[in-house]
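Hey, quick one: can you model this chain's 3D structure?
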Amino acid sequence: MNPKNTDFSNRFGGSFISDIFVKIRLVIKLVQDDRVDLLLKAIPAFCLLYLIVPLDLLIGPLDDALVLYLGMDFFINLCPQEIVNQYLEEIRGTSPAEAEDVIINGEFKDQG
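Sure thing. Here's the predicted structure for all 112 residues.
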């Protein structure tokens, strides 16, 4: 298994539905970012174009959902990971750097 994909899957950690919403927000932010290559931005565009084209690989909306989901994953994995991590932190409202800087002081009393 590719370690990069394993790392990516560990970043979401929520339910399948919440992960989809996070990925959609992440893709929108990455498409709007000027630091992401224009050719990479074509991946989500082609996935959306697939929805318009009347050709179907499978019966029903299953192939459309599959193309969108795999297209999002492919696009996110090809984007620069520091940009992806930045937007993931922004979407979640947390930062690993902030979490590491938190120090809790306390006292221990022996009740003996």
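One thing worth noting: The mean pLDDT is 80.
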